[in-house]
Each structure stands twice: as C-alpha cells, then as structure tokens.
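TOPIC: backbone geometry
CONTENTS: sequence, structure tokens:
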Amino acid sequence: MSHDILNISLEEISIDKNIPLHATIELLTECNWKCKHCYIPEHNDSGLNIETITKLLNDLRELGTFDVTFTGGEIFFRQDVLEIIEIARSLNFRVNLLSNASMLNKEKVEKLANLYIAEFSTTIFSLNSLIHDSITGISGSLEKVLNNIFLMDKYNIPIEIKTPLMKENSCEYKELKSFCDKNNFKYQVTTAISSKNNGDISPVSLRIDNNDYAKIIKDIDRMQDIGESKKIKPLFDFDDYLCKPIINNIYIDCKGNVYPCNSFLCKVGNIFDSSISDIWNNSEELKKIKRMKKKDLPECVNCDLIDFCGRCPGLALSEDKTLYGCSSVDRQIAIARKQNSQQL
C-alpha cells in the first residue's frame, strides 16, 4: 500500500469516526524575530505550562489524534520545548515543528533526529541576506537559518521551506524553489499576507502590487501543480464542506483557547473550561461550523470567479469579518487566475 493511499484512508476514517486526526498547539507567542508581516500582535506570552500541555497531549491521544504540530512564536524560545516534543513522541504522535530555525545548535538537532521528527518547517524570505534580514528585523538571521537547515539535513530531518511573498521579496520565489529542489526540501509559497489577530491591518500594506499579481500567481500555481490545463473548480464544490480540513483538525492556542484551525480563529472553547474531548464532541459552535457547506455561502453561488477560487473561510473571517461573505484575499487570487486563463 502506498503512502498516499494510507494517508487518504486515515483521513477518511478520521472523518467517518469524528476523530481530530491533526492537532496544532501554539506553545507561546514570544519570538526572537520581528517580522514585518507577522499576524501575532504581541510577542509576550510564554504559553501553557508543561503540565497542562502534557494533559492536553494525553487527552488528544485518547481522542485518536495521529499527529501534532507545535508552533509559536518561536518554539525554541521555550527552555522545555525538547521535553515537550519528547513527551509527544513517547505518546506515539507524529510530530511536526514550525520554527524559524535560528535558535538551534548541534545538540538540539541531534536530539530532534533521535526523536524522529516528521518534519521541520521554517521560513526563508530570500537567499539575499539584505532582503531576508530586513523582513525579520534581525541581522544575520538568514545565515543562522541556512546553517541550521543544512545541519538538520545531515541528520536526515525532513525540511520544508515556506516563503510568504510581499513587495520586498516578490521576485525571490524562483531562486528559492531552485534551492529547495536542489537540496530535496519541500517548498511552499504564498501571497496571503493577512491582518493581525487583533484586527490591525498594517501588514496588508506589505502585499504584492496588483500589477505583479497575475504573473506571480501563474508561477505559483505551476510550482504547486495547479497547471494551466487544470480546473480550479474542484476546489470549490458547492456540496463540499465549508472547509474540509477542519473536519478532522483542531487548534489550541497558548492561552488554551480552541479553534477549528490556526487560520480559522472562531473560538469554540477553552481547555480550562472544558476538556478537549468535550469541546471536540459537544461544542455547538464547532458542530455548526463543521456542518456548513459551500452552498451556504450566498455571495459565492453566482460569483463569476467561482471556477478560479479556493476560498479559505479563515481568511474571510480574519480579513472580512464574515464566515459567509467574500474573502478579499482569495478574490484577488481568483481574479489573477481568471486573467491568466483568458490569456491562454
């Protein structure tokens, strides 16, 4: 049986059995970088204590959760992060890490290798240190990241590189894609720069200029195998769930608040008020969200961009304050895709 077939089967079983197959836990908001576009408004929360995290992991294990992603802030800002990862692995979770990779050293990398981390995902804005370090606000940050990802690669830790594109680094993705292909790293690139979680829209000004958008989206779609001959329409099946990934995903932030995912910040509970099991099985708000279908979106039904749209309800909620209306971020991408299709 292939790995892909196995994954599909697990997804289908988890949906059928109402299992939160994937869980993301925000360990803290503190960070050693000062990224211009960051959606976290304040980096001052040291996160849940290890006892609370241990109980949460045990509760998720009982629910049948298969993999856990730890995110921040910068997770290695926590002195106990390796202990937390070790606890998760002892419970047989598949563990993914989201980190800027700048706070690692050989000892930590050896520990991660011995814990058989499933994937280490980090961000590189450009291979030009002037551009990368300007976005992070930290001189020397690119050098540290590159040194540490090559160190992890020597220890056979799977690496994913992500690039959020802004005006400042809008031309950097092709070189980064070649770099990742050469080194057998996974690569993801996005143009979705969102407002901060507190409603501050200042990061929006960093977005790519409209004049460059269509070409960049065309390149990104090719990179991510959404070819010119392929239809975007299957991404927007009206009989499908509002967001299929949230059917078997759960996100817990560093205050214990629970959401459908880390991009879909509609609070459905808090682990200090109810157990994660009770929230997953009994939260009326979560049930309502999981029942919603794309055909329940009145503005989408007759939209002329529907064949080109991969609407994210989380972005619609954060950017446009609605689960039911248009996502301005996804609309911009859909417009670019439509323009590209008309040039064929």
About this structure: Strands lie at 22-26, 67-71, 94-98, 119-123, 159-164, 186-190, 249-252, 257-259, 269-270. The two ends are 39 Å apart (CA to CA). Residues 328-342 form the longest helix (15 residues). The first strand starts at residue 22 and ends at 26.
